[in-house]
């Protein structure tokens, strides 16, 4: 029987052989369709050529492969089916509501800009929207852990043994057992590290020893929709890559989960608060990090810690915290073009900004920008039949078409930075325009991971900006 690695390589080579994409003018791309007809599959666009080996960004820091959790090259690929567009849209909206409600609760208000956010009783499982995983080593000796990558979370955690089936969800890999690691230690109750959890609403007090004394630092994270994880905040060695070991990495050793069933081993937090990996490793890597989501689920991208030695290939736009929540990253969109033509959109409607969220599949835009984008895109794609939708989505039936011409979509950010989205993988998902409406004009939006495909997204802690580098993976 062929090994998974052989099948992965074979799929990459075969996909590369099938793939052809050619420019049809500067503003449009003609995409060669492959059988079977692709209108109901995200894999329909898995025809762009990509490298067999992981792309290597130019830097001295740690670099690890970034894979789609449903992809054949993932160490423990998810057994769940990839999300349809309708499912991705639902999860994306649920996650947006969760992030908004988290920020607003932190401010003690439910209003933002000129609108209001209604916080539903059940926000849904925000972690379910995560699409990309990295494999890191935890403990001594290092045990591989497949972790969902999330810029919208700070605290990293893995499921730990011993844990019974009622308290931990089933995962494909064995649970991490801290008893087998020579470098594991629970963080003491009352320490500054433990106290930092309380300031970020992540701590639930300290555990009690048999003699009644407080000993270990407890953590708790609630993602919404009944999804909760709690356990012991701990200290451990984290191996990022050969020779790249973080000796004192703080993470959650999870002993009780509710509402999760992701089959992965845990989550890697890349937000801006002290508990996140970039902040914890700032002395080693300067607090900067970048990642590049691959264009297709069978491709390979990367996650890199540390700034590149040369940033001349990047275009930077200013980046701030969203509502000073310390976790989410915010940039300002100023314009959109479709097929090389700039859309006439008043800049004031973008005032809410965009939260850059690798855990959100689809991008969210305020009402006017979304309507203008949808209208222009539909006009450019008028040759192809639309699929009727109750949500007024823009989805196409490409059955019978050997070639599809897709307009280029570009986003312009503060500072005149224009980013061309990958075509078709950064524009279409499951044959649908991968954008949705976030709310009224001036409302905050989200930059989702579909639009990030093939872009190296550099979070520059020193310069306070977000950098874009095209064609990085």
TrEMBL record:
> Per the UniProt entry, what are the Gene Ontology biological process annotations, in alphabetical order?
proteolysis
The protein's UniProt keywords, in alphabetical order, are: Aspartyl protease, Disulfide bond, Hydrolase, Protease, Signal
Classification via InterPro entries: Aspartic_peptidase_A1, PEPTIDASE_A1, Peptidase_aspartic_dom_sf, TAXi_C, TAXi_N
Taxonomically, the superkingdom here is Eukaryota
| Residues forming the catalytic site | 150, 357
* GO molecular-function term, one example from the UniProt record: aspartic-type endopeptidase activity
Name the Pfam families for this protein. TAXi_C, TAXi_N
Family, according to the entry, reads as follows: Belongs to the peptidase A1 family.
Name of the featured protein = Aspartic proteinase nepenthesin-2
């Amino acid at each position: 029987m062929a090994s998974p690695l052989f099948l992965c390589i074979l799929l990459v080579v075969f996909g590369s052989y099938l793939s052809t994409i050619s420019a049809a003018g500067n503003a449009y791309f003609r995409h060669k369709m492959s059988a079977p007809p692709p209108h109901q599959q995200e894999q329909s666009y898995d025809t762009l050529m990509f490298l067999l080996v992981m792309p290597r960004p130019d830097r001295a820091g740690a670099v690890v492969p970034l894979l789609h959790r449903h992809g054949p090259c993932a160490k423990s690929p998810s057994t769940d089916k990839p999300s349809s567009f309708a499912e991705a849209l639902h999860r994306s909206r649920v996650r947006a509501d969760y992030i908004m409600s988290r920020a607003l609760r932190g401010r003690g208000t439910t209003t933002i800009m000129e609108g209001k956010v209604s916080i539903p009783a059940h926000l849904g499982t925000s972690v379910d929207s995560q699409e990309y995983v990295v494999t890191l080593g935890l403990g001594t000796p290092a045990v591989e852990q497949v972790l969902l990558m999330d810029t919208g979370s700070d605290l990293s955690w893995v499921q730990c043994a011993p844990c019974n089936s009622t308290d931990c969800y089933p995962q494909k890999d064995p649970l991490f057992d801290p008893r087998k690691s020579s470098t594991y230690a629970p963080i003491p109750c009352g320490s500054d590290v433990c106290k930092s959890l309380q300031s970020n609403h992540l701590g639930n007090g300290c555990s009690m020893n048999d003699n009644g004394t407080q000993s270990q630092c407890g953590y708790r994270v609630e993602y919404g929709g009944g999804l909760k994880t709690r356990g012991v905040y701990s200290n451990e060695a984290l191996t990022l890559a050969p020779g790249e070991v973080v000796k004192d990495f703080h993470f959650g050793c999870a002993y009780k989960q509710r509402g999760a069933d992701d089959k992965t081993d845990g989550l890697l937090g890349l937000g801006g608060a002290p508990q996140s990996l970039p902040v914890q490793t700032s002395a080693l890597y300067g607090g900067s990090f970048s990642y590049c989501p691959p264009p297709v689920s069978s491709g390979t991208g990367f996650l890199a810690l540390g700034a590149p030695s040369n940033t001349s290939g990047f275009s930077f736009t200013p980046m701030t915290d969203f509502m000073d929540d310390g976790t989410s990253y915010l940039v300002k969109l100023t314009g959109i073009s479709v097929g090389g033509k700039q859309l006439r959109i008043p800049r004031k409607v973008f005032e809410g900004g965009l939260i850059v969220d690798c855990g959100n599949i689809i991008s969210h835009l305020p009402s006017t920008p979304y309507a203008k984008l949808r209208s222009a895109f539909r006009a450019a794609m008028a040759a192809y039949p639309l699929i009727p939708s109750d949500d007024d989505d823009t989805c196409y039936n490409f059955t019978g078409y050997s070639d599809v011409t897709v307009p280029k979509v570009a986003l312009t950010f503060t500072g005149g930075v224009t980013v061309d989205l990958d075509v078709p993988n950064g524009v279409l998902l499951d044959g649908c325009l991968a954008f949705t409406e976030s709310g009224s004009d001036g409302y905050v939006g989200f930059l989702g991971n579909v639009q990030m495909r093939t872009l190296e997204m550099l979070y520059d802690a020193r310069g306070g900006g977000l950098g874009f580098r095209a064609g990085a993976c």
